[in-house]
Amino acid sequence: MAASTPEHAALVGEALDLIEAEDAERLVPELLGLFEMTHGRWRRDGHSVAEAVYAADTAFQARLLHGLAARYHELEPGAVGRRHIVDLLNSFRMLRAAAEGQPPATRAALIGLIADQDVHHDPSGLVRLADQEFADGRELSDEFVAVIRRSYLTVWNGKKRLGDLVARLDGPPVNPGETWSDRALAEVAGLGGDCSPTRPRRPAPARPRSGTGPAGP
Q: 42 or 75: which carries more pLDDT confidence?
């Protein structure tokens, strides 16, 4: 593991002071500065920053989560800072820690961030986010559904954690985000179908079991 430099140690100290002061707004650029300096990795003393964030109270974590997610959407697609923000959120385990009681704007920013990824390695967090959206009467974008599906197939505990949620989701018929699938969805939409890439998704209605539905005439 690379040794810390004086400049890195100074940034770590500033970050720890901001965490102690619970100044989430000023902490966001400090964290991005740290990860820019280390190419997205924690150095020896940098781990103390992650530990301090993880030990902080949930109200501070929620503000920091909102700040990081909002900053993600301010950056250009493909910017290295976006990758650093995803890595920071994963290292802080913040999707778990601040999942309850998020303001809708924070949740929307976080879902948008996750929807840009290939997979997400916290299946339980995906379930919580989806269930909170459904409870508030909101629908899931096709891009977020695609991440849920890919995580179900590829994350080591995805099938166990996400099986019920995947079974409840109604469409899209193919995942958006690839040239062929986007073309197929656009063609269906052009033919008058209702599965365009921007159509949000609700959980599928429960189907009556055989023999329990209403009798026909």
A: 75
* CA distances in angstroms from 2 to 39, 56, 84, listed in the order given: 12, 27, 18
Report yes or no on whether pTM surpasses 0.85. no
DSSP 64-97: HHHHHHHHHHHSPTT-HHHHHHHHHHHHHTHHHH
Q: Which of 116, 140, 119, 121 is nearest to 129 (CA)?
A: 140
4-10: long-range contacts, CB 8 A cutoff, minimum separation 24: 4/43, 4/44, 4/45, 4/46, 7/37, 8/34, 8/37, 8/38, 8/43, 8/45, 8/46, 9/45
Query: Residue 207: what pLDDT?
Result: 46
**Chain centroid to CA 90:** 9
* Cα–Cα distance list, 168 to 35, 186, 203 (Å): 38, 24, 5
Q: What is the full DSSP assignment across 25-66?
A: HHHHHHHHHHHHHTTS---TTTHHHHHHHHHS-HHHHHHHHH
CA-derived radius of gyration, the chain: 20
pLDDT given for residue 211 in this prediction: 43
CA dihedral 33, 38, 42, 48 (to 10 degrees): -50
DSSP structure string for 160-193: HHHHHHHHHB---SS-SSSHHHHHHHHHHHHTT-
Which residues is 203 bridged to in the sheet? 169
From residue 194, how far is each of 171, 173, 178 by CA, in Å?
Answer: 10, 11, 19
